[in-house]
Amino acid sequence: MLGIAINIVYLMLSLALLFAFIRLTRGPSLADRVVALELIASVVVGYVGVHAIDTGVSSFLDVAIVISLTAFLAAIGFARFLERGGVKDE
Amino acid sequence: MSEIFVSILLLAGASFMVLAAIGIVRLPDLPTRMHASTKAGAMGAILTMAGVALHFSDSAVAARAIAFIVFILLTAPIAAHVIGRAGYFTGITLWSGTTKDELRERYDPDSHKLSSGLENKTGRAVSSRD
């Protein structure tokens, strides 16, 4: 039961990753790409959580926390770069 | 029994993430894309972490999962606000069906100043932002 659900969840998360990657490559402005990057980080956190259940290793939760933290800091950094006169209206 | 609940939580979380990804591809401009991705993506991560906490049924794992959920709830709105603000200030084009843009007459892109619209009534000087 749980094994089938985990396989379905892996498949759905891969689909979400593919869609976010499409927006990452096509996004007309840098802000769109930053939004796509943040969604990719969120999907990867989902992968790590499901993998923790799949393997039974609870230490993967620390990995998820670190990925989430770096994604937050990257978003703040990109926003500061944009506001301090980075790329203007590509 | 708990396997069924864990499966439901994981499937719900993955469904939210797929919805967020579809929204980020299909929606027309930056604010609507952020509307889809930030809220649904955070909800997906929160439901997945709830499934992890329920599966291990260990107080240390549950405490870490709850700490993660609190962290997501704190940081997701801040990141969305900051990116939306930076995107607006760099001059993204809004969707043609946008009906309300309250910043358009208040914000001056040359001097990077935002007026509240109350300066002349109260007689105070225009407060300058950094």
UniProtKB/TrEMBL annotation, chain A:
The keyword Ion transport applies. Its main location: membrane. It is a multi-pass membrane protein. GO terms for molecular function: sodium:proton antiporter activity. It comes from the Bacteria. One of its GO terms (cellular component) is plasma membrane. It is found in: Cell membrane. This is pH regulation protein F. It holds the Pfam family MrpF_PhaF. Belongs to the CPA3 antiporters (TC 2.A.63) subunit F family. The keyword Cell membrane applies. InterPro entries: MrpF/PhaF-like (IPR007208). The chain crosses the membrane at residues 6-22, 34-53, 59-82. Keywords: Antiport, Cell membrane, Ion transport, Membrane, Transmembrane, Transmembrane helix, Transport.
TrEMBL record, chain B:
This is Na+/H+ antiporter subunit G. The chain crosses the membrane at residues 6-28, 40-56, 62-83. Pfam families: PhaG_MnhG_YufB (PF03334). It comes from Marinobacter maroccanus. One of its GO terms (molecular function) is sodium:proton antiporter activity. Residues 107-130 are annotated as: Disordered. The keyword Translocase does not apply. InterPro entries: PhaG_MnhG_YufB.
